[in-house]
Amino acid sequence: MFTDECRIALRAPDGRERVWRKRGERFLPITTTQTVSFHGGSIMVWGGVSSDARTELVIVDNRLTATRYIEEVLQEHVMPYSGFIGHDQFLLMHDNARPHVAHYVEEYLEEVGIQKLQWPARSPDLNPIEHVWGMFKRKIKSSSKPSQTLNELRNAALAAWDSIPQVDVRNIIQSMPDRMQAVIRARGGNTRY
């Protein structure tokens, strides 16, 4: 199971808008735009994918700590999923974020018998879920009615996650050996992926 967190903002993060104006028009209402601090707010979500299924999307309110990661993610979503797959065949991939690599989390995973895939630092492009997050964000962005509130954004996120076809997730996961070989051939440099 490939897992990760993803942040989604109500407004575009760059906030750039180009406006062409004539001399003397600098502060006219037609040539100015109001801005929203912190992109209007954002939510953090967690999800896990494999070739055959995916977890429910978890809305992570506030900051994810090691304790919350165990209680709200590992116990509630990863453990039941690993039982479904079979503990002896289950392998967890999570990145090197602090809550994931905390000693407390390491002890918990060892205690419950979940093996994890060691992951190289700063290599999100090799994690299939990053590509799933890309599809996920495009689905949210292409919504006919953009979210205006955080509650609407939560609902849009849940709907977008459920609408991603599992065959697309499987195709991404199956493409990873080719992606990894390309990275090896490029000695960690840029690839066509």
Structural features, described:
The strands form two sheets. A three-stranded antiparallel β-sheet has the order 1-2-3, with helices on both faces. The protein has a two-stranded parallel ribbon with strand order 4-5. With 193 residues, the chain is of the alpha+beta class. The chain has a single domain, classed as Nucleotidyltransferase, domain 5. The protein has helices at residues 66-85, 98-101, 103-112, 128-141, 150-163, 166-185; strands spanning 2-9, 42-49, 58-60, 91-92, 115-116. The model has no long low-confidence stretch (mean pLDDT 85). Helix 1 packs parallel to helix 3.
What can be said about this structure in brief?
Helices cover 42% and strands 12% of the residues. It is α+β, with helices and mostly antiparallel strands and 193 residues long.
Sum up the structure in keywords.
193 residues; Nucleotidyltransferase, domain 5; 6 helices; Tc1-like transposase DDE domain-containing protein; nucleic acid binding
List the helices and strands and how they pair.
Blueprint: E1 2-9, E2 42-49, E3 58-60, H1 66-85, E4 91-92, H2 98-101, H3 103-112, E5 115-116, H4 128-141, H5 150-163, H6 166-185
Parallel strand pairs: 4-5
Antiparallel strand pairs: 1-2, 2-3
Helix pairs in contact: 1-3, 4-5, 4-6
